[in-house]
Structure formats: structure tokens, C-alpha cells
């Protein structure tokens, strides 16, 4: 059984005319007829009934057609995968990452991806969600990892959820709030505070605190996550942080309760924009990866 013979049969079944089927396959009619007869001989039963120039699919042919189509589809899929694999040699992939996302979890995924697809030349840029959205729309990056916010719709972006993470209260060793298993907003009212200016949920948290009469006294403000953690560790005050973004050794973290705040981290691509082989590989790898939470 040869792939060309299967294609001849499928074309004949579609057109019900050997001449037209031969033209569609770009071969002569005798070559097409000879190929079909060889396949019928191999299968041990006729696929068509001949009535002069007119042909009809036999009962056996109707039974075999779905299987023959599947063989062709699988062969085309295998060819596409092989082509994509060849194209992944020195294939560029530009990834944008929201600056408040913890590096450790994401680095584990990227390390596994690089090991599986070593031909992909991955570049990563770290910036704000607004910049990531613009760069994604303008084609400056291929894919973005950022928070899935309520003002982003599936019409604007194609979104693949990765993981959820809680917000925690980060404090230095020996802080009196470390005696609590969970810290509520009332517990931190009036406490010295380190303000994370780059936090995408900052305004929401500030609004909740204001509505509940919680006083936040910011002794230090920064857009940089490393400076925020360093100042907390130095004893300047506490900070609200996503749990997987806490990377500085020695920091103590407690779950934030009343209210509990979480965020959804997702992969964003542009709807309607064809995926390159490198991007398709990353999307499949992200889907299969064992993300935290």
C-alpha cells in the first residue's frame, strides 16, 4: 500500500470519475487506474464499481474510506511535525514577562523548554503589563506571561491560564506579626509599609484598605521587586507580594486573609495571528508543564 495509491482512491471517491480524479492528482488516467487496481488487489476487494466512464464506491469502499483518509491525515501531520522540527533550528522566539512575576517558577519551565527545543533562540524582556500588551499587538514580542485581569477579553488576546498564586504578607525575621499563621488587614493597620509601585493589583488592595479604614504608612516605595524585598529584610516595614515572587532568603511570609487576594498568571498571544513553529512548541510545552498550585 503506497501513499500515492491512497490519494488516487480518495480523489476518485470524491469526483466519481477517473479522468477528473487523474487531473486532480496531476497524473495520467492509466497511471491512476493502475494504482487503484494495485491497492484493490492488496486489500482483496474492489473499492469501486465501474459502469463505463461512471464509477460508484462499493460497500467495501465506503467502509475503507474513513481509514484511508485517516492514513493521509496522519502522514500530513507527521510531515508537518518533521518540518517544524527542522524549522526550530535557530528559530527566534521573543517572550515578554510581567516584571512582578517570580523568576524561579518560570525559569524551571524555560529550562525544560530549552532542553526539549534547544534550537529555539529565546529572548526574554521584562516590563509592565501595558507595555506587554502594546508590544504583543505590534508584533514586537511573540508571547507574553502576565496577569489575567478583568479588563482583558478573549477578543483582544488568546489566553492560556498557567497557575494561580496567593498574595502574602512579607516581613523580616523577628517581626511580631510572624507569630500569626495568617495576617488580616486589621493586623497590619498602622504598621510601617513598603509600597510595591509596580504591583498590578496595587490600586485594588489600596481601595480595600481604605474602605475598611486600614491605615498604610509607606516608609519606602519602589517599582523594583528586588529593592522592595531588600528593604523589608532590612526591617523598614512589611509588603504585600505574590507568594511565588518572594525570592530573597530570610524573608518570612504569611498568607493574607480577610480578604484573600489571588492572581491568575497566563500566557497571552494574538488571536488570528499564525503561530510560528517555535511559538507552537512553547504553547504545547506550557500546556504539558506541571505548574505550581
UniProtKB/TrEMBL annotation:
Give the matching InterPro entries. Answer: LysR_HTH_N, LysR_subst-bd, WH-like_DNA-bd_sf, WH_DNA-bd_sf
All copies of the HTH lysR-type domain together span 1-58
> What is a single Pfam family found in this protein's UniProt entry?
HTH_1
Task: Please report the name of this protein according to its UniProt entry.
Answer: LysR family transcriptional regulator
What the record says about family reads:
Belongs to the LysR transcriptional regulatory family.
Q: Which UniProt keywords apply?
A: DNA-binding, Transcription, Transcription regulation
Source taxon at top rank? Bacteria
Amino acid at each position: 500500500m503506497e501513499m500515492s495509491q491512497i490519494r488516487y482512491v480518495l480523489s476518485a471517491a470524491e469526483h466519481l470519475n477517473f479522468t477528473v480524479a487523474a487531473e486532480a492528482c496531476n497524473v495520467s488516467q492509466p497511471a491512476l487506474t493502475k494504482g487503484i487496481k494495485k491497492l484493490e488487489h492488496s486489500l482483496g476487494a474492489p473499492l469501486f464499481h465501474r459502469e463505463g466512464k461512471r464509477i460508484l464506491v462499493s460497500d467495501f469502499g465506503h467502509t475503507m474510506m474513513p481509514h484511508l483518509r485517516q492514513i493521509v491525515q496522519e502522514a500530513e501531520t507527521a510531515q508537518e511535525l518533521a518540518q517544524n522540527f527542522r524549522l526550530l533550528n535557530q528559530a527566534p522566539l521573543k517572550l515578554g514577562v510581567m516584571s512582578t512575576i517570580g523568576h524561579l517558577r518560570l525559569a524551571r519551565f524555560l529550562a525544560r523548554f530549552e532542553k526539549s527545543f534547544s534550537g529555539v533562540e529565546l529572548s526574554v524582556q521584562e516590563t509592565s503589563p501595558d507595555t506587554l500588551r502594546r508590544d504583543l499587538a505590534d508584533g514586537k514580542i511573540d508571547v507574553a506571561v502576565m496577569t489575567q485581569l478583568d479588563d482583558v477579553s478573549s477578543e483582544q488576546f488568546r489566553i492560556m491560564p498557567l497557575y494561580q498564586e496567593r498574595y502574602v504578607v512579607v516581613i523580616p525575621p523577628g517581626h511580631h506579626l510572624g507569630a500569626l499563621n495568617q495576617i488580616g488587614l486589621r493586623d497590619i493597620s498602622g504598621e510601617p509599609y513598603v509600597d510595591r509601585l509596580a504591583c498590578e493589583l496595587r490600586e485594588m488592595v489600596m481601595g480595600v484598605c481604605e474602605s475598611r479604614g486600614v491605615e498604610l504608612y509607606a516608609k519606602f516605595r519602589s517599582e523594583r521587586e528586588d529593592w522592595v524585598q531588600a528593604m523589608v529584610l532590612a526591617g523598614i516595614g512589611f509588603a504585600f507580594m505574590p507568594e511565588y515572587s518572594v525570592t530573597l532568603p530570610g524573608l518570612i511570609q504569611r498568607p493574607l486573609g480577610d480578604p484573600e487576594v489571588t492572581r491568575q498568571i497566563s500566557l497571552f498571544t494574538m488571536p488570528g495571528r499564525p503561530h510560528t513553529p517555535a511559538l507552537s512548541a512553547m504553547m504545547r510545552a506550557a500546556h504539558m508543564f506541571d505548574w505550581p498550585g
